[in-house]
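Notebook entry, structure prediction.
Reason for the run: the old model in the group folder had no record of what sequence produced it. Starting over properly, with the input documented here first.
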Amino acid sequence: MKKIFLSLILLAGTISTIVSCSNEKLDPVAASSSINMTAPTGGTYVLTGATAGTTAFTASWSSAQFGFSAAVTYSLQAVKSTQSFDLASPSIVLASFNSDAAANEKVVNQRDLNNLLLSSGGSIGSSGSFKLRIIGKPSTQLSGSTNGVTAVSNEVTITATPYDTFDEFSKLYLPGNYGGASGFADWSGAGNSATIFSAGNDGKYEGFVWMNVPSPEFKFNSDPTWSGHDRGESSSNGSYSGTLGGNNIKPADGAGTYFFTVNWPAGTYTMSKRQVAIIGAATPNGWGSGTYLTFDTNPASPYYKMYTMNLALAADEFLIRLSDDWNNKMGTLSGNTETATTGGQYKIKLNGGNMKVPTAGNYKVVLDIRNSANYNLRLMPI
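New structure, fully documented this time:
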């Protein structure tokens, strides 16, 4: 009986240990703490592309204390004032500091605040009310952890008017006879014409334009008016030479997508027709041939004037191919093979590296090449 009784005690102790360990995993020893956000304190912000790099406010907050010394990553979160926060609310990382620091500060510029508010559902050009807060997590804690520790600050309400991110960059308009057939208006100087952008705001422009007429004609225009701001081809018969002048430019390759580079100060440009296709082991045709994407002409579509296609994709590699000879492609910013994210914008660049589909499935592939400063791809699960 003594042996049986002792065994029962040992068994009970073992079960208690298992339960205790299990509870530790579910409920961390270090309890979550609070953060005191002392700035911003509210206010009204009218954000503009022209002032994107200037300071919106300097965020200030006290340190999170988790009962142990650790580097803490602090993030600024935002939601519409009518909504409630959760840990998955849109955020931008402010900084990482040690938890024993007395206080922390970070300058938040208009660009970062604008992107945060847009991702929180803000409307371009419309004043809205938003709530802000700061959260802190140990830097070694996985972002998707459901049983970690988190410090949360008080909430602050601001009023802000976001801007269109395209407005950060100098633009060049391409009015022409193709406009009405391509989602714009024919020969509209700047009010409703295709645009290409200068990522460096240095007079050097780059971009893609879909010209959906058999014999396109166009000019470049640097201003919303026609008064001396338009430039075309230097050749009097309209033939291509790459030098800016006063005559209409007339691509000889007919309807399709064209890629342009323009050096406005030097008075030169290049123009070449491009295909827009997805290709790779992840796609139905493999690396053998591309699947062409379709230019979205539906004004009611969230992907208006982007290139899209619904496809079954394997968990494998792919690229955006712009010509059959592989000299023109789009891929990762790093140039290395990377797993693309799903749902949101995944930034890419010309001649980048292979991308990889994270999980096999049916996707809407969305290629947004309207702005050369923000070429991006989206894999939208369907």
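Summary: The first strand starts at residue 34 and ends at 35.
The old model has been moved to the deprecated folder.
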